[in-house]
Design brief:
The structure is a homodimer of 156-residue chains. Chain A is of the alpha+beta class. In chain A, 18% of the residues lie in helices and 29% in strands. The first copy, chain A, has four helices and eight strands. The C terminus of chain A is likely disordered. Chains A and B meet through helix 2, strand 1, strand 2, helix 3 and strand 5 of A and helix 2, strand 1, strand 2, helix 3 and strand 5 of B.
Amino acid sequence: MSGDKTAIEEGAELLLDFGKLRKAAACGQALVPAVAQDVDSGEVLIIGYANRMALEHALKNGVAAFWSTSRNELWVKGATSGDFLDIVEIRVNCEQTSLLYRVKLRGRGSCHTRDRDGVPRLGCFYRRIEKGKLVFVPDPREASDRCPGSDGGARS
Amino acid sequence: MSGDKTAIEEGAELLLDFGKLRKAAACGQALVPAVAQDVDSGEVLIIGYANRMALEHALKNGVAAFWSTSRNELWVKGATSGDFLDIVEIRVNCEQTSLLYRVKLRGRGSCHTRDRDGVPRLGCFYRRIEKGKLVFVPDPREASDRCPGSDGGARS
């Protein structure tokens, strides 16, 4: 993993890439944002993009599918890792400009990053902004084992 | 409301605008997708976009703010309607290419559309795709009054 990638994915520095949307749109596909949400925990897992092919794949095969704007190809979540996201339902917003995949995890997690135990993180939103820095939030699967009011803070 | 707008927002026809991302990116701002999620119900309320100004507004003022890619201006949710979304925390994804606003509703709802009682809908994802058509899903605030197994179908 390159130093940059480690800093972005595992660091405490806010390094938001505001160029993302422009780059995504430049991949040449007609896309809408597509968000995957775990119906069990309510956790927002992934914010990705979908073209018609990805939506049709998701509808036909019952697993969350996106368009990878970096590789510029269909990205069926779990096709490589086995950690598929089974579709419970697909929702559309008021203006019909975005998609919400409501899913159940078939595997261990949905993020390509791993926690300190080497397990794929449940979702991609494992850090929150606090005083301009990033702070890790506990995996809701861990958090549910804790007593209310106990340490809900950083996990590393 | 124009016929088109009614069909898109209140209809059963799937009329997804896959041109959205391209149009959003063409507004000239450096943007990332920004999703607002209700921390109480877990409901995904809004999928929008944020530039640095919107994020800074949200951090500074504690209310969800987006960049309106159609009006090309800062869009502070609730500034017109009074239905602000108070920020509980802001999360960042693994690759630092999107934002998750975890919020509490100060007002009645977050969608600009209204239900049959004239009340702003809780969120924008009030329809699901079913056999190629859109079916209304109950507002979770209504659903919680219902017995499990009772009619969870269309609300109109």
